[in-house]
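For the sake of transparency, this paper describes our internal protein records without simplification. An entry from our holdings is shown next, in its original layout:
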Amino acid sequence: MEDFEGNSAYAYYSSFFVGPEADGYRLQVSGFTEGDAGDALSVHNGHMFSTFNKDQDGSQVNCARLYLGAFWYGDCHNTNPNGVYSWGAEGSIHGVGVEWSDWKGYNYSLKSISMKIRPVQ
């Protein structure tokens, strides 16, 4: 991931699995082992994928609508890589940007986040 000041960070997980449609595309992620971005993804482990029109999160509200994204929200999020793309620090709308809270907090929208997934050997 990269911020608008040219800094980059990463988080490495040893296991990442998305379940079938019948189980709501449930996320199974574990094994955060390193990375200067911190572990903002593990809290999403075990949650189903939620969208504006398919609320499958564990919250009383529709997190996808509230935070303008789609993700494996639980009681909303610690990371929101599918959030609204804006330009860096944004204090006016909490939590809607492209975020990785353990690195930049909830009021900073990142320039980019990418996930690199490879098959288990």
Q: What stands out?
A: The mean pLDDT is 93. The CA atoms of residues 33 and 68 lie 30 Å apart. Residues 12-109 form a domain with the Gamma Fibrinogen; Chain A, domain 1 fold (CATH 3.90.215.10). The radius of gyration is 14 Å.
